Amino acid sequence: MTWAWACSAVVAVFAAVLFAAPLMGVERWHVIAAALPARAALGAAFAVALVVALVGLCRRTWRPQAGVPVAVALALATALHLPVVLARGVVGEPVAAPAAGQLRLLEWNTNTDLTTPDVVAELAAAQDADVVVLPEVAPASGSTYRQAFAAAGDPLVRVDRHTSTTQVAVWMAPQLARHYATLPGPDPVKTVELRPDTASLPTVLALHAPWPVGARLAGWDRDVDWVAAQCSAGTPVLVAGDFNASTDDFGGARLGRCLDAATQQQDAGVGTWSTHLPTLLAMPIDHVLATPSVGTVTSFSVLTSEDGSGTRHRPTMTVVAVADRP
């Protein structure tokens, strides 16, 4: 039947294009850039549809002329995408226990105020975080967070030079915060660069990149290019935030010399958005990346313990073993 062949061709071409996009260097194109983070959900949908098609063929509710080409296309789509996701790791790992010589970074897009500062502060204290990156907070929330961190027994200091419109916030332990100064990122609202005064500490980049859809794609390109450029400068760099993209959108697990922490720990298939979906189907769009000179990533964990907190993103916790730090 004509409709069956047409649907089969659309499914096969769509799946093949998504699979080949990072290999062909077209991962930043319109539509493709937005679709790539959903690889896991799409792969699962292809697999479920394949099972339905096979059941229909076995029960003869579908005619072979219609069912066979659809099943073949769905089998191709499933084979192209699900193995990639599974190979990247979908189980997750526990957070490395606190030890000397660590840099412990908590990253959490709380979607401004979908959870309260005390919840963030309690999680940071429980994870013994000495760096907290919040890609989207209310601009006037600084004093509220400061009080929450103090009440939780983890008196962190806000490092970025924020304004009345700044949404991205970086908090650090006092002994780290005193070494950092703020430089402007390409988007004064959603990007920040923190430059240390000592070579033993990394430059820290924090960002909330736009969703790469329509006119926002240009802003997303700008932010990712900025990260790649900073990561290629030859100095230690640590990056954290909501990229609204998977590593497929980067064209690989690296941006410049920065390597995705989840990829290093075989957890790159664990989804962070949305909390309404299981981690296997959610999009892995929150990332921490680091140059090798920062240290060795000993764990990268997507925390599901806060799924009921009201936020749409899962927090991530990264532990880096560093050779030297103040």
Task: Note the main attributes of this structure.
326 residues, alpha+beta, Deoxyribonuclease I, Chain A, 2 domains, 7-stranded mixed sheet, 6-stranded mixed sheet, 10 helices, 13 strands, 19% strand, elongated
Describe this structure in words.
This protein has ten helices and 13 strands. It is of the alpha+beta class and 326 residues long. The radius of gyration is 21 Å and the shape is elongated. A seven-stranded mixed β-sheet has the order 5-6-7-8-11-10-9. It has a six-stranded mixed β-sheet with strand order 3-4-2-1-13-12. The protein has two domains: 87 residues; 220 residues, 4-Layer Sandwich (Deoxyribonuclease I, Chain A), CATH 3.60.10. 36% of the residues lie in helices and 19% in strands. The longest helix has 25 residues.
The total strand number stands at 13
CATH class division of the largest domain: Alpha Beta
Give the CATH H-level superfamily of the largest domain: Endonuclease/exonuclease/phosphatase
Instruction: Output the strand order for the largest sheet.
Output: 5-6-7-8-11-10-9
Unreliable stretches covering 5 or more consecutive residues? none
Going by helix content, strand content and strand pairing, the class is alpha+beta
Shape summary = elongated
Total discrete domains: 2
In what range is the share of β-strand residues?
A: 15-25%
Work out the helix count. Answer: 10
Helix content: 25-40%
Largest sheet: 7 strands, mixed
Whole-number average pLDDT? 94
Report the end-to-end length measured between terminal Cα atoms. Answer: 70 Å
CATH topology of the largest domain: Deoxyribonuclease I, Chain A
